[in-house]
Design brief:
CATH architecture of the largest domain: Roll
Number of strands: 22
Radius of gyration: 23 Å
Distance between the termini: 55 Å
CATH topology of the largest domain: PH-domain like
Number of helices: 11
Oligomer: single chain
Number of domains: 4
Strand content: 25-35%
Structural class: alpha+beta
Shape: globular
């Protein structure tokens, strides 16, 4: 069987015959004759980019699409985690946490997708429909000190019950948290009592866990507002504090400014903030703006086992890296790599910040990014910017070199290939996340 992982978490297990069957039904001219035995290995690169969203299984619903030469439609093997893990469709109680530790228990079906669960939580909390889209469900891991390490944002196609139970570890939980970056949208959320309470609880939690920096005088003012139950004023003051609205990640390793540096990364305010500990124990802080990241990629690798032959490869630790190409100065691009188990979550944060920037740049409203209720059914706005999760690739080549020349005032991104030391072929553009909020630096910016 093949283990199919979605964003680093086991999605389902499928047989070789299922992957081969899909390959044979879809077909692709890019696979040479006689390569059928390798079809499942080619599936991710050859089949998926060609059929795109036309062939998929979403939440257990097996989809058929008509293709050339198949007037009856193409029957696609179902890779639904619920079916492949043999989880029956039934009513269950799912526990969702709020930032203040409160537990919201909702009755759902095992086949319910992320949006269904989010809707159930919102209904239980009496959160208005037009505010539901400002919040998302996140998979987190509870640490010993009661804080949470964010694994990833639950994607639309996922089945939250299956995602969390398949991990077989009570430390993994689902938490409700705001899913936007611009603090000006706080005004929309604070218009309603439930939205205000959720935002207030998250702000208090972030301060208690040290995500938001507070000095003694600010702490005194916040305490006074808390005692007066002045929630709006509390949030207004918090908005002026350093790292408000940032998501803080676990300590990890970076190659900037030199290899092997320990770093604490925070995401917010359209940037990645680095607090780097240099080899001489000196701490330096700096930020990388999203608008100056030309592209990024997430890679994974499994180190070779030193154990005896036949030892389980599943016990090897998978190493995840996020690498982004950054415009350090005019005409000078440089790759920066972060090695962290939370690399996927970092990539999701970058993508959502870019999406939000592009919506604002086009003059759109954030409300249009989110779902609407129409005749009792959920519909999504056509203007929504889809957030794509990153592919898991081989380890990036250590011999990558920065681009020597950059066209001035780029309005879009043209992705270049990056050569592997073991091959003369370039990595295709699909291996990267191109950033259409990328802004070239002109002479007046230096």
């Amino acid at each position: 069987a093949y283990n199919i992982h979605v964003n680093g978490v086991l999605h389902c297990r499928v047989r070789y015959s299922q992957l081969l069957g899909l390959h044979e039904q879809v077909g692709t001219p890019s696979v040479p004759a006689g390569a059928a035995a390798d079809a499942p290995l080619l599936w991710g690169h050859a089949v998926v980019p060609r059929v795109g969203r036309e062939l998929c299984c979403v939440g257990g619903r097996q989809l058929c699409r008509e293709g050339p030469g198949s007037p009856g439609g193409l029957q696609v093997p179902c890779f639904c985690p619920q079916e492949t893990q043999q989880i029956p469709t039934e009513e269950v109680v799912l526990e969702v946490l709020l930032s203040n530790g409160q537990k919201v228990k909702v009755t759902i079906l095992t086949s319910d997708q992320t949006e269904d669960v989010l809707e159930a939580v919102a209904s239980k909390l009496d959160l208005p429909d037009d505010l539901v889209g400002y919040f998302s469900l996140f998979l987190v891991r509870e640490t010993k000190d009661g804080a949470f390490s964010f694994v990833r944002k639950l994607q639309e196609f996922e089945l939250p019950y299956v995602s969390v139970t398949s991990l077989h570890n009570p430390e993994f939980r689902i938490i409700l948290r705001k899913s936007y970056w611009d603090s000006s949208y706080d005004d929309d959320v604070m218009e309603h009592r439930v939205g205000l309470n959720l935002l207030y609880a998250q702000t208090v939690s972030d301060i208690e866990h040290g995500w938001i920096l507070v000095n003694k005088e600010q702490h005194r003012q916040l305490k006074s507002l808390q005692e007066k139950v002045s929630k709006k004023e509390f949030i207004r003051l918090a908005q002026t504090l350093k790292y408000y609205g940032y998501l803080k990640f676990d300590p990890c390793v970076t190659d900037f400014p030199e290899k092997g540096c320990h770093v604490v990364v925070s995401a917010g305010n359209n940037e990645l903030n680095f607090q780097v500990q240099l080899p001489n124990e000196q701490i330096k802080e700096g930020s990388f703006k999203v608008t100056r990241m030309r592209c990024w990629r997430v890679t994974s690798s499994v180190p070779m086992s030193n154990g005896p032959s036949g030892s389980s490869p599943g016990k090897s630790e998978v190493k995840l890296e996020l690498a982004f190409e950054y415009l350090m100065s005019k005409d000078r691009l440089q790759w920066v790599t972060i090695t962290s188990p939370q690399a996927i979550m970092l990539s999701i944060c970058l993508q959502s910040m870019v999406d939000e920037l592009m919506v604002k740049k086009s003059g759109g409203s954030i409300r249009k990014m989110f779902r609407r209720r129409l005749n009792g059914a959920l519909r999504r706005s056509d203007s929504q910017q889809a957030v794509k999760s990153p592919p898991l690739l081989d380890s990036p080549d250590a011999s990558r070199e920065p681009m020597a020349k950059l066209s001035s005032k780029l309005t879009s991104v043209s992705l270049r290939g990056i050569s592997h030391s073991s091959s003369t072929n370039d990595v295709g553009a699909n291996d990267f996340h191109g950033n259409y909020a990328f802004e070239g630096i002109g002479d007046e910016d230096l």
